[in-house]
Structure prediction request, 422 residues.
Amino acid sequence: MVSTCLLLLSLRYTPIRHTSTLAKVIKNRLNLELDSIRQAGTWKSERIISTSQSSHIKIENSKNDLLNFCANNYLGLANNSEIIHAAKKALDDYGAGLSSVRFICGTQTIHKQLEQRIAKFHQREDAILYISCFDANAGIFETLLKEQDYIISDELNHASIIDGIRLCKAKRLRYKHKDMSDLELKLKESYNENHDNIIRLIATDGVFSMDGTIAPLSDIKYLADKYNGLIFVDECHATGFFGRTGRGTEEYFNMIGTIDIINSTLGKALGGAAGGYTTGSKVLIDLLRQRSRPYLFSNTLPPPIVASAIKAIDLIENNPNLPERVHENAKYFRNEMQKLGFKILGDNHPICPVMLGDARLASQFADEMLKRGIYVIGFSYPVVPKDRARIRVQVSAAHSKDDLQRCIDAFAEVGRQFKVIK
Ligand SMILES: Cc1ncc(COP(=O)(O)O)c(C=O)c1O
Prediction:
C-alpha cells in the first residue's frame, strides 16, 4: 500500500517538473519566432471594427468613418437588410444551432433547400455544405483520390487547397502559375503509367486571391480532355459576381457545367457570413457525405447563416445585373490607378493588388492610408512571396464613384510621399 502511494506521488510529481521545463522551452522558442516576425516587418495586427461590415465602417479608437477597401464583400450584401431579416427569421424558426454534425441530428429542411439552390445555381446534380470552404477543400481530395491517382495543382493555389492536397495519398505534381505548357508536361508525366482506374485531377483557383489573376479554364479543359483528366476549381473569388450573371469563372469562359468539381464559399459575395460547399455529380456528393472528414466530424452550419445564403442567392438570381456594378467599379479603379503610375496586378477583377515589393513599405503605406480615412491592408510574406508585398484593394459594388475617387486620391498622395510614383 505504502509503496503504491509512493509510486503514485512520484508519478504525479514527475510531469510537473517536466511541464515547467517544457513551458520554458516553448516560451523561448515562441518568443524567438514572434521576434523574427516583428523584425521582418510582417507582423499582422487586427484592427477592430465596431460597426457592421460595409463600405463605410468605424474601427475602435477612431471617431471618424473609414472607407473600407479590404473586405471580400463583392456585392455589398454583408449588411443587406433583406439578408438580415431572413437570418433573424431563421433564428426564430429554427434556433441558433443544431449541437450536432449533419448525419447524427443536424440536418434541417433549410440545409437541404440551400444545397438544392446551390446545385441549381451552378447547374449541377447536387451540393454538400460545410462550415467553411477551408473545410470543403480539406475534405475533397482525401475522399476522392487514392495512392495510384495524381493531383496536379497550380503553384499559386490557395492555402486551403494546398492543405487539402497534403491530406491525400495521391501523387502530387505542381505546374507554374497559369502556365499551360507546364501543365501539359505534368499531365504527360502522369500519363506514362497504366491508365486503368487512375484519376488525374487538375486543381486550380478560378480567380487567384492574392494576384487577381484568372485561371485559363478553357485551355485547362482542353488539356484535361486530351489527357483524360478531371478538373477541380475553387470559386471563392468568383461565385455570385464573376461571369455575366455571377455563376463564376465557368460562366466568364462561357463553359457552364463543364468543370467536374466546384468548391466555393458563402463567406464572400453570397452574404459574407460563413460556410462553404462542394457541388458536382450526385455520386461525388454521395461519397462526400459518407467519407469527408470535415463533414462527418464538424458541426452543422447554423440556421441563420443558411437562411442568409438562401436569401443572397435569391437576390443574385432575381437581379441579374447585380454583378455589373462591381466590375464597372473595378475597371474605373484599375484604370485611374494605372494612369497615376501604380502597378496593379491581375486581370479585370475587383481584386486589385497594388504592388509595392517591400513588406515594411506596404505596412507603412497602409498606415498612412488609414490616417486619410482609407482602410486597406498590406500583404506580405508568408501570405505572398518574399519581396512581393502589396496592398490588396478589394473593390465592391457598394462603393460609390466618390468612394473610389477618395481612395485613388489618397493613393496618389501617399504614393508620392513614399516615392512609389512621381
Ligand atoms: C481561394 C479561397 N479558397 C478558400 C478560402 C476559404 O474560404 P472560407 O473562408 O469559406 O473558409 C478562401 C478564403 O479566404 C479563399 O480565398
Q: What stands out?
A: Residues 132-134, 137, 158, 160, 205, 209, 234, 236-237, 265, 267, 276 surround pyridoxal-5'-phosphate (CB under 6 Å). The chain has 15 helices and 13 strands. The radius of gyration is 24 Å.
